[in-house]
Amino acid sequence: MELFNFPEYNQPIGKINNLINDIIKVVINISTEKSAKF
Question: Which of 3, 7, 18, 33 has the smallest count of CB within 10 Å of its CB?
């Protein structure tokens, strides 16, 4: 899932995008774990 795909801004935005994707994965994992408990 690429939020930004501009080659000229690849370095900084790519790192930010990876961070955002990691946060989204963590949030999804937490929400699925919570819904699995109920």
Answer: 7
How far is it, in rounded angstroms, from Cα 38 to Cα 28?
16
Under 8 Å between Cβ of 3 and 17: yes
Q: What is the CA radius of gyration of the chain?
A: 14
Q: Which is more confident, 16 or 5?
A: 16
The structure tokens 């930010």 sit at 16
Classify the C-alpha dihedral 16-18-24-29 as positive or negative.
negative
- Residue-wise pLDDT for 6-36, tens only, equals 565 557 777 888 899 999 999 999 888 887 7
